[in-house]
Design goal:
The longest helix is centred in the N-terminal third of the chain and has 18 residues, at 88-105. By secondary structure, the chain is an alpha/beta fold. It has eleven helices and 18 strands.
Length: 371
């Protein structure tokens, strides 16, 4: 007898969580001298708020910004900031745990990678403990490349009856879930290099011709797209002025363009669209995609980096203006789940919620008929 129901898993990458800084209270601030009691309390509250948000107070927050927030003396603040320690992993981990919590709430089978390689074992214990408390299950992996543990999308990709592994992957964790399709090592196994729609695939220009030939065997029309130079504005906490900027070339197309296959909608970063308008318009027109651009004010949230779940629904970042445009293009409330909080701090590493998640669908096995 055959069980026709396939089983879907959502894999989530863990991240290291180091020891947090101790809380700063008003008495400690007052001992620094030269601050009124009411301002000391404000500064203590501000410092704790920044810490809970995962703010790099020591390096990113300037005395002027914190003064505007607390009303305390700039010299005092500088002293306090120098004594503070930032643990950005707490901000990143909070966002990833929010993704896990949201997926579990909606009934998805969530598995969090648990590294067993000697070089990585133990580094993720605190994150894994918190994920277990939420109800997530663990998926052990002996993967030795920490980058592929932190960003599971770049480890491997399931497409049709094939699994494509990153050339750098050292362990095939999908087999533990019962996924036994044919394995191949190609650049498209680094999942950020591949976006698939109905009848077509997008890959970066740097991908070899072998990747395009492989995708064509799946009946896909393949398009090679250029990279983008990304300007990242590092904020010391959400909604605050930028404290540092960085330029970096990004070949991972999922940060700039993605496809909602159920509704035939192509979502594109506004700057990337302006740079490649003719090419993207042509792809959308040929494959009957409704092209939607992200509002510029939400571009830093990387809304294009959404996750398509096993049942076809989308997990979208908390980007209301982008979601409004998607709704206008035909997305219904049953087509997506909106994150309750914005994924923002992970984005500073040029990776958002699709980058640290992966979907694996396992087809049912034939069962022997009982006599």
């Amino acid at each position: 007898m055959k069980n026709t129901a396939s089983r879907g898993f959502v894999i989530v990458s863990p991240i290291e969580m180091k020891r947090p800084m101790p809380g700063i209270d008003a008495r400690e601030v007052r001992r620094m001298g030269g601050v009124r009691e009411e301002n000391a309390g404000k500064l203590a509250q501000g410092m704790q708020l920044l810490h809970e948000a995962g703010v790099e107070t020591r390096d990113w927050a300037t005395p002027e910004i914190v003064q505007a927030k607390t009303g305390a003396n700039p010299e005092l603040i500088y002293t306090a900031l120098r004594r503070a320690t930032w643990h950005p992993q707490y901000a990143n981990a909070g966002e990833r745990l929010a993704v896990i919590r949201t997926l579990l709430k909606h009934g998805y089978d969530v598995r969090v990678l648990k590294p067993t390689a000697p070089s990585l074992a133990g580094k993720y214990d605190e994150f894994l403990s918190r994920a277990r408390k939420l109800g997530a299950k663990m998926l052990e992996t002996s993967e030795q490349d920490q980058q592929l543990v932190n960003w599971v999308r770049d480890h491997s990709v399931q497409l049709g009856k094939n699994v494509y592994l990153s050339p750098d992957a050292t362990h095939d964790y999908m087999k533990a879930l019962g996924e036994n399709s044919t394995r191949k090592r190609l650049q498209i196994g680094e999942g950020g290099n591949l976006v698939v729609g109905k009848g077509f695939a997008l890959i970066p220009k740097k991908a070899s011709a072998e990747n395009a030939r492989e995708l064509a065997q799946h009946g896909l029309k393949v398009y090679s797209l250029p990279s983008k130079i990304m300007l990242t504005r590092f904020e010391y906490c959400p909604g605050r002025p930028a404290e540092m900027q960085a330029l970096q070339e990004s070949w991972h197309l999922e940060l700039h363009v993605n496809v909602a296959t159920r509704r035939g909608i192509m979502l594109v970063d506004p700057e990337y669209y302006q740079l490649n308008k003719t090419l993207l318009d042509g792809i959308a027109r040929k494959h009957k995609q409704r092209l939607v651009t992200v509002p510029p004010e939400e571009a830093a949230l990387l809304p294009t980096n959404f996750l398509e779940l096993p049942d076809g629904r989308l997990l979208l970042n908390n980007a209301p203006a982008t979601i409004a445009r998607l709704r206008e293009a035909g997305l219904t409330k049953d087509d997506y789940i909106q994150m309750p909080v914005a994924v923002r701090f992970n984005n500073y590493s040029h990776g958002s919620l699709r980058c640290f998640t992966q979907v694996v669908t396992v087809e049912p096995q034939e069962k022997k008929r009982r006599r």
